[in-house]
Amino acid sequence: MRAFEDLVDEAATVDVSWSFDWLDGRATEERPPWGYARLLAERLGRVGSALDIDTGGGEIIAEAPRLPDRMAATEGWAPSVARARRLLGPRGVDVVAVEPGQPLPFPDGSFELVSSRHPVSPDWPEIARVLAADGTYFAQHVGPASAYALIEWFLGPSDRTGRDPQREAAAARAAGLRVVDLRTARCRMEFFDVGAVVYILRTCVWWVPGFTVDRYRERLARLDAHIRSHGSFVAHSTRTLIEATRS
User: Domain named Methyltransferase type: which ranges (predicted)?
Assistant: First the structure.
C-alpha cells in the first residue's frame, strides 16, 4: 500500500463530481436486497406523470428504459442540477432547482408517482400535496445510524435515533398517506485505504461537516494504521424502502 501522505494528498485534490468511480477497488458497499432502481423503473413505465425529489445527478432516473410522458425532477445542489440536466434533458425531463426546505413548485395533485432515492429530509405534507388521488410515493431512504462507525471515528459518539423507519411511516400517515410497504436493510461498507475515506468525506459533506485533511490529519493517520493492520475499515449503511399511497 502507498504511503499515508500520498494517499491523503491525492484524495484531497482529486475532482469530486458526485461520481464514485474513483473508489473502484478502494471501497465497497453492499446494496439492499430489493433492487430499488429496478423497482422504480417498473413503476415509471406504468404511469403518465412522475416526480423524482432530490434526484442528485439524475443517475437513477436515467437507468429507467421508459419514462412517463411528464417527468420532472428536483435537486438542491447546483453542480448536481447541472449534471442532471445534461443527463436527463435529452429525454425530456424537467429538472428544477429547489432549495432544501422550500415548497415543491408544482400544483396540487400533479403526479401519479413521486419518488426519491436518499432524500435529504422528506417533506411529507408536500409529497402528499403534489400526489394525485391514488398516487404513490416510492422511495429508498437513508436509515438510522448509517455509516456511523466511520462518522463517529471523526466526531465521537452521536445521537443514533434519527431517520427511524417507524417515525417516518408515522409522519407519512399524519400527512394523509397510507403506508403499504416498509422494509429496512443493513449493508456492509469497507474502505481499503485511507484515501477512499478522504474521498467519501469530501463527497458526502454532511457526514463530517467541515472536514479537511489538515483538520483531521491525526485521526486519518490512526485510521490509516487501522486499515493497514486489519485490511480494511468496516462500517454499515442502513436503508429503508417505503411505499405509500394517497387515497
Answer: 51-136
pLDDT in tens, 24-74: 999 999 999 999 999 999 999 999 999 999 999 999 999 999 999 999 999
Domain boundaries, the chain: 1-29+193-231, 31-145+160-188+235-246
Would you tell me how many other CB atoms lie within 10 Å of the CB of residue 164?
A: 15
128-166 tens-digit pLDDT = 999 999 999 999 999 999 999 999 999 999 888 889 999
At residue 172, the 3 state secondary structure works out as helix
Q: Is residue 21 helix, strand or coil?
A: helix
CA-to-CA distance for 128 and 137, rounded, in angstroms?
8
More confident site: 18 or 223: 223
In terms of DSSP bridges, do strands 233-246 and 131-142 run parallel, antiparallel, or are they unpaired?
Answer: antiparallel
- Short-list 114, 129, 130, 137, CA closest to 242: 137
E-assigned strand segments in 81-130: 94-97, 111-117
pLDDT tens per residue, range 73-106: 999 989 899 999 999 999 999 999 999 889 999 9
DSSP 8-state assignment for residue 23: G
Using CA atoms, how far apart are residues 138 and 181, in angstroms rounded to an integer? Answer: 9
31-145+160-188+235-246: CATH topology: Rossmann fold (3.40.50)
- Distance CA(51)–CA(58), nearest Å, equals 12
